[in-house]
From TrEMBL:
Top-level taxonomy: Bacteria, Bacillati, Actinomycetota, Actinomycetes, Micrococcales
InterPro entries xrefs: HAD-like_sf
Protein name listed in UniProt: Hydroxymethylpyrimidine pyrophosphatase
Amino acid sequence: MTIQTPPLALLLDVDGPIASPVTRSVDAGIIADLNSLVSAGIPVVFNTGRSDTFIAEQVMAPMIAAGLPHGAVVNAICEKGAVWFSFTADGPGTIHVDKDLAVPAAYGDQVRSLVASSYADHMFFDETKRAMVSVEQHVSVENADYLIEQQDFDGAAMKLLFQHGLGAIRLGHESPDEAGNIDFRVDPTIISTDIESIRLGKDLGASRAVELLAAQGIVPAAWRTMGDSRTDYAMADWLHYNDHLVKHVDVRPADGVPTKPYAVLTSVDLGLGEEIIHDDAGAAFLRAWLDAVTD
Ligand SMILES: [Mg+2]
């Protein structure tokens, strides 16, 4: 196999930098620039907590419709590393699932019932997840109202885990199983709660990204990671500590930018105002990378 060494590879969180956190869809300009980057030979890898279905509908289908070049392969790591697939202009390839990283199905069934009986006004059970259990805010509900209900739901979800004999952690609060182990995590985000194996994370996604590209004969000279949450830094952390050159873009730096042994960029580094955040910042960085590799 001929080894390709593109100057950059992109490892992209989806909700926030690519998909609008308000509409949860992807702007046409972002889709066009993603396709242009792929055309320029830049590997694009998505690294998301979302399901493969979400990525297929919100990212893959629009990229194909907008003219994803034939022969190009785009990789998507979903459910924080538990699920992954590649797609081309012809559509998705095999969906891979690491079953060892799945939440027990009986627990998922009970969460589905719990949402239907007590939380259906504010949130819905994500039926497209294969390894995680995710419960998401309805788009029609005010986020502030959702966040209040979410606290209550999270408590009920933790209690259910305990009843199933499963040890879990939520925001530092530990509820071990009888043997003292914690195998699961309840992770509240601003629009959802994810219940997942403790082994899932953006770092697992990063390791899969490197493996997937290597299997395709691609060894990038450097990486750019981009996200909107503190947990997204785990992508760049993993790459840095495994001797890959990386810079991380934070599109929602209001939480404060932590000190890291690699460069962290925000919209200000592109000469934009600090009010340029979310997918507006994501779009600006995609354009900057495109300009850098096509000049
Ligand atoms: Mg995000």
